[in-house]
Amino acid sequence: MTEIGLVSCTKTKLEQTAPPAKLYSPSTLFSNVQQYCKQQHDNWYILSAKHHLLEPDGPPIEPYDETLTGARVAQKRE
User: Fold this and answer.
1) Confidence category of residue 78, pLDDT binned at 50, 70, 90
2) How far is the C-alpha of 1 from the C-alpha of 23, rounded, in Å?
3) SS3 of 74, please?
4) DSSP helix/strand/coil, 77
5) Of 37, 51, 53, 65, which residue is most buried, by most CB within 10 angstroms?
6) Residues ≥6 apart with Cβ < 8 Å to 50
7) Are 33 and 7 in contact (CB under 8 A)?
8) Is-contact 40 3, C-beta < 8 A?
9) Domain boundaries, the chain
10) Residue range 37-65: average pLDDT?
11) Phi-psi region of 2 (alpha: psi -120 to 50; beta: other; left: phi over 0)
């Protein structure tokens, strides 16, 4: 059985376009959870408020200012 870790995106991001794992790397919380997922799971992905599910080494994305904090339940489920 393959175990998958999910890491939430963070408000703190680089100011330029970067692969997903690098974009969120300025966040200490993101970096710590990313390390944990790498050690404890077979694969890991990033949950993004704007892009949904991201592969850590996926195509570069631009910084954005969107969050699920305060979002309706339907939007969170999507």
Assistant:
1) confident
2) 30
3) helix
4) helix
5) 37
6) 9, 64, 66
7) yes
8) yes
9) 4-77
10) 95
11) beta
